[in-house]
Amino acid sequence: VIKFYSDREKRLLGRYFFFYRKKHHISLLQVYNAGICGHATVQDIEKGVIKKNDDYYDGLLHFYHLKYLMNDEDLQILEDRFEALYQVCEQFQSEKIDKEINSLFEICFSHQEMMIYREVIEVLNYLKKYYLDSKYLTRDEVLRVIPYINLFESLGSLLLEVCEQSNIKKILDIKICNQLYPLAAEKNDAIGRYWYARECEMKVNYIE
What we know:
This protein is an all-alpha fold.
């Protein structure tokens, strides 16, 4: 059966390939040497740039020993829930945050056979710790969260907020600052713009 991917699915797959590669310490050279597509094409795909050739995505799934089991409707539901969570977190509405996080937990627990949902469960626990338990993440937790920041747009902005606050208020690590700086620069929402400005300030004045 030939699988055709929607643009939404291709964006998610590309970002997930980047996340998965980083998480498992696979170099771009290793991917390039697999002969699936050119070096620049791999990098574009990982940034969420849409490529017309579906064979690239099938080839990368095969290279990483992954299977794509979602569909466009499932993906839309997740993205809508992430956007709803973003809105209530931005306003720090605790009861609504709790409701949205629990709603996402229910969705993800009912699809645990899919790796992407298991990944979301992990980061939801970090969001819960920060927004509901009022606790900063540890350095190790921030390092685990960073690869997730570009996976989903709205969810990534919230994770950026959690990591930035944890680093400023608790960890004070310039290496984490250097990892978060380019991620903040890529975000085009209120949270991303705020933290990009703060990162510029911190790199000059705050963390030595």
